[in-house]
Amino acid sequence: MKINVVRNILEANARIAAENRELFAEKKVLVMNLMSSPGAGKTSLLEKTIDSLKGRMAIGVIEGDIQSSQDAERIAAKDIPVVQINTGGACHLDGNMIRDTFHHFDFDALDLLVVENVGNLVCPAEFDLGEDVKVAILSVAEGDDKPAKYPLIFHESQALLINKIDLLPYVDCSVEKIRAESLKINTQIAILEVSCRTGLGISEWCAWLTDRIAAKGLGIK
Question: H-helix or E-strand containing 138?
Protein backbone atom coordinates (compact mmCIF):
# COMPACT_ATOMS: atom_id res chain seq x y z
CA MET A 1 0.00 0.00 0.00
CA LYS A 2 1.26 3.49 -0.86
CA ILE A 3 0.27 4.85 2.58
CA ASN A 4 2.32 2.18 4.35
CA VAL A 5 5.33 2.77 2.10
CA VAL A 6 5.27 6.51 2.80
CA ARG A 7 4.86 5.87 6.54
CA ASN A 8 7.79 3.44 6.55
CA ILE A 9 10.03 5.92 4.73
CA LEU A 10 9.19 8.73 7.14
CA GLU A 11 9.60 6.50 10.21
CA ALA A 12 13.00 5.26 9.02
CA ASN A 13 14.08 8.81 8.31
CA ALA A 14 12.90 9.94 11.75
CA ARG A 15 15.11 7.32 13.43
CA ILE A 16 18.19 8.44 11.49
CA ALA A 17 17.37 12.11 12.11
CA ALA A 18 17.19 11.42 15.85
CA GLU A 19 20.66 9.86 15.73
CA ASN A 20 21.95 12.87 13.77
CA ARG A 21 20.44 15.20 16.37
CA GLU A 22 22.18 13.34 19.19
CA LEU A 23 25.54 13.74 17.44
CA PHE A 24 25.00 17.44 16.78
CA ALA A 25 24.06 17.99 20.43
CA GLU A 26 27.11 16.04 21.63
CA LYS A 27 29.39 18.10 19.37
CA LYS A 28 27.62 21.36 20.31
CA VAL A 29 26.92 22.35 16.72
CA LEU A 30 23.85 24.33 15.68
CA VAL A 31 22.36 22.87 12.49
CA MET A 32 20.14 24.88 10.17
CA ASN A 33 18.01 23.48 7.34
CA LEU A 34 17.73 26.26 4.72
CA MET A 35 14.77 25.80 2.37
CA SER A 36 13.25 27.69 -0.55
CA SER A 37 12.14 27.37 -4.13
CA PRO A 38 14.84 27.52 -6.83
CA GLY A 39 16.23 31.02 -7.32
CA ALA A 40 14.95 32.51 -4.06
CA GLY A 41 18.52 33.27 -2.97
CA LYS A 42 19.70 30.52 -0.61
CA THR A 43 23.29 30.47 -1.83
CA SER A 44 23.53 34.26 -2.01
CA LEU A 45 22.25 34.48 1.55
CA LEU A 46 24.82 31.89 2.62
CA GLU A 47 27.62 33.91 1.04
CA LYS A 48 26.49 37.06 2.86
CA THR A 49 26.12 35.14 6.12
CA ILE A 50 29.61 33.65 5.83
CA ASP A 51 31.10 37.06 5.06
CA SER A 52 29.35 38.59 8.08
CA LEU A 53 30.15 35.82 10.58
CA LYS A 54 33.57 34.66 9.41
CA GLY A 55 36.08 35.12 12.19
CA ARG A 56 33.26 35.05 14.75
CA MET A 57 32.13 31.45 14.28
CA ALA A 58 33.20 28.36 12.33
CA ILE A 59 30.72 27.40 9.62
CA GLY A 60 30.31 24.25 7.52
CA VAL A 61 27.88 23.76 4.64
CA ILE A 62 26.10 20.83 3.00
CA GLU A 63 24.83 21.71 -0.48
CA GLY A 64 21.87 19.79 -1.86
CA ASP A 65 21.03 19.87 -5.57
CA ILE A 66 19.56 17.51 -8.12
CA GLN A 67 22.64 18.00 -10.32
CA SER A 68 25.85 20.11 -10.55
CA SER A 69 28.26 21.49 -7.94
CA GLN A 70 27.98 25.18 -8.83
CA ASP A 71 26.64 26.26 -5.45
CA ALA A 72 29.24 24.22 -3.55
CA GLU A 73 31.97 25.84 -5.62
CA ARG A 74 30.69 29.29 -4.67
CA ILE A 75 30.79 28.38 -0.98
CA ALA A 76 34.19 26.68 -1.23
CA ALA A 77 35.56 29.96 -2.62
CA LYS A 78 34.86 31.42 0.83
CA ASP A 79 37.33 28.91 2.33
CA ILE A 80 34.51 27.12 4.13
CA PRO A 81 34.25 23.32 4.47
CA VAL A 82 31.49 22.24 2.10
CA VAL A 83 30.12 18.94 0.81
CA GLN A 84 27.92 18.58 -2.27
CA ILE A 85 25.03 16.11 -2.34
CA ASN A 86 23.50 15.43 -5.75
CA THR A 87 20.20 13.63 -5.36
CA GLY A 88 19.94 12.59 -9.02
CA GLY A 89 16.27 13.54 -9.15
CA ALA A 90 15.00 13.44 -5.55
CA CYS A 91 13.35 16.71 -4.58
CA HIS A 92 14.71 16.85 -1.01
CA LEU A 93 17.50 15.77 1.32
CA ASP A 94 16.88 13.22 4.05
CA GLY A 95 18.56 12.17 7.28
CA ASN A 96 20.57 9.38 5.69
CA MET A 97 22.01 11.66 3.00
CA ILE A 98 23.11 14.09 5.70
CA ARG A 99 24.67 11.30 7.79
CA ASP A 100 26.72 10.15 4.80
CA THR A 101 28.59 13.49 4.77
CA PHE A 102 29.73 13.39 8.40
CA HIS A 103 33.21 12.03 7.74
CA HIS A 104 33.98 15.20 5.75
CA PHE A 105 33.54 17.50 8.77
CA ASP A 106 35.42 18.12 12.00
CA PHE A 107 32.40 18.77 14.19
CA ASP A 108 34.58 19.58 17.18
CA ALA A 109 35.75 22.67 15.28
CA LEU A 110 32.32 23.79 13.98
CA ASP A 111 29.79 26.14 15.55
CA LEU A 112 27.24 26.15 12.73
CA LEU A 113 26.35 23.63 10.03
CA VAL A 114 24.06 24.90 7.28
CA VAL A 115 22.20 22.47 5.04
CA GLU A 116 21.12 24.17 1.82
CA ASN A 117 18.27 21.91 0.78
CA VAL A 118 17.14 21.15 -2.75
CA GLY A 119 15.11 24.04 -4.23
CA ASN A 120 11.50 23.04 -3.54
CA LEU A 121 8.68 24.51 -1.42
CA VAL A 122 7.06 21.12 -0.72
CA CYS A 123 9.16 18.03 0.05
CA PRO A 124 12.09 19.45 2.09
CA ALA A 125 9.78 20.51 4.92
CA GLU A 126 8.50 16.95 5.31
CA PHE A 127 11.87 15.35 6.12
CA ASP A 128 13.61 15.81 9.46
CA LEU A 129 17.40 15.96 9.07
CA GLY A 130 18.18 16.24 12.77
CA GLU A 131 18.46 20.02 12.47
CA ASP A 132 17.86 22.55 15.23
CA VAL A 133 16.09 25.11 13.07
CA LYS A 134 14.36 25.24 9.73
CA VAL A 135 14.57 28.54 7.85
CA ALA A 136 12.55 29.40 4.75
CA ILE A 137 13.43 31.99 2.13
CA LEU A 138 10.82 33.57 -0.11
CA SER A 139 11.78 36.17 -2.70
CA VAL A 140 9.37 38.96 -3.53
CA ALA A 141 9.69 37.96 -7.19
CA GLU A 142 7.77 34.76 -6.36
CA GLY A 143 4.67 36.70 -5.30
CA ASP A 144 2.74 36.93 -2.06
CA ASP A 145 0.51 33.86 -2.50
CA LYS A 146 3.07 31.21 -1.49
CA PRO A 147 2.20 30.89 2.24
CA ALA A 148 -1.40 30.04 1.32
CA LYS A 149 -0.32 27.62 -1.42
CA TYR A 150 2.53 25.88 0.43
CA PRO A 151 1.67 26.16 4.14
CA LEU A 152 3.80 23.30 5.47
CA ILE A 153 7.16 24.97 4.93
CA PHE A 154 5.93 28.10 6.74
CA HIS A 155 4.42 26.00 9.54
CA GLU A 156 7.65 24.08 10.11
CA SER A 157 10.11 26.99 9.88
CA GLN A 158 11.34 29.03 12.82
CA ALA A 159 12.23 31.95 10.56
CA LEU A 160 11.14 33.33 7.19
CA LEU A 161 13.46 35.57 5.21
CA ILE A 162 11.67 37.73 2.65
CA ASN A 163 14.48 38.23 0.16
CA LYS A 164 15.13 40.55 -2.79
CA ILE A 165 13.36 43.43 -1.06
CA ASP A 166 15.21 45.75 -3.45
CA LEU A 167 12.97 44.43 -6.26
CA LEU A 168 9.71 45.55 -4.63
CA PRO A 169 9.29 48.60 -6.92
CA TYR A 170 9.35 46.26 -9.93
CA VAL A 171 7.15 43.36 -8.87
CA ASP A 172 3.55 42.85 -7.82
CA CYS A 173 4.04 41.64 -4.26
CA SER A 174 2.76 42.69 -0.85
CA VAL A 175 5.19 42.04 2.00
CA GLU A 176 2.36 42.81 4.42
CA LYS A 177 0.30 39.99 2.90
CA ILE A 178 3.23 37.56 3.18
CA ARG A 179 3.63 38.51 6.84
CA ALA A 180 -0.07 38.19 7.62
CA GLU A 181 -0.53 34.86 5.84
CA SER A 182 2.65 33.39 7.35
CA LEU A 183 1.65 34.40 10.87
CA LYS A 184 -1.78 32.81 10.40
CA ILE A 185 0.03 29.52 9.71
CA ASN A 186 2.73 29.91 12.37
CA THR A 187 2.28 32.55 15.06
CA GLN A 188 5.85 32.01 16.31
CA ILE A 189 7.71 32.44 13.02
CA ALA A 190 10.30 35.22 12.94
CA ILE A 191 10.03 37.28 9.74
CA LEU A 192 12.97 39.29 8.45
CA GLU A 193 13.24 41.39 5.29
CA VAL A 194 16.58 41.10 3.51
CA SER A 195 18.36 41.96 0.29
CA CYS A 196 21.49 40.04 -0.59
CA ARG A 197 22.24 42.62 -3.28
CA THR A 198 22.15 45.69 -1.02
CA GLY A 199 22.92 44.02 2.33
CA LEU A 200 19.66 45.23 3.88
CA GLY A 201 18.69 43.12 6.88
CA ILE A 202 21.78 40.87 6.82
CA SER A 203 23.08 42.10 10.19
CA GLU A 204 19.65 41.46 11.75
CA TRP A 205 19.59 37.98 10.22
CA CYS A 206 23.06 37.17 11.57
CA ALA A 207 22.02 38.45 15.00
CA TRP A 208 19.01 36.11 14.92
CA LEU A 209 21.28 33.21 14.01
CA THR A 210 23.78 34.04 16.75
CA ASP A 211 20.90 34.22 19.24
CA ARG A 212 19.88 30.67 18.26
CA ILE A 213 23.33 29.43 19.22
CA ALA A 214 23.03 31.18 22.55
CA ALA A 215 19.51 29.85 23.08
CA LYS A 216 20.80 26.30 22.60
CA GLY A 217 23.35 26.97 25.29
CA LEU A 218 26.29 26.75 22.91
CA GLY A 219 29.33 28.95 23.13
CA ILE A 220 31.30 29.95 20.06
CA LYS A 221 34.29 27.61 19.85
Answer: strand 133-139
Over range 152-180, report the average pLDDT: 98
Domain count, the chain: 1
pTM given for the model: 0.93
- Structural domain includes residue 220: no
Q: Which pLDDT does position 6 carry in this prediction?
A: 52
- The dihedral over CA atoms of 203, 53, 31, 158, expressed in degrees to the nearest 10, equals 0
* Alpha-carbon dihedral angle through residues 37, 42, 43, 44, given to the nearest 10 degrees: 120
The helix, strand and coil proportions of the chain, stated in percent and rounded to the nearest 5, come to: 45, 20, 35
Strand, coil or helix: what is 97? helix
Average pLDDT over the chain, rounded to an integer:
94
Q: Pick the residue with more confidence: 68 or 177?
A: 177
- Residue 21's CATH number: 3.40.50.300
Q: How many CB atoms lie within 10 A of CB 48?
A: 21
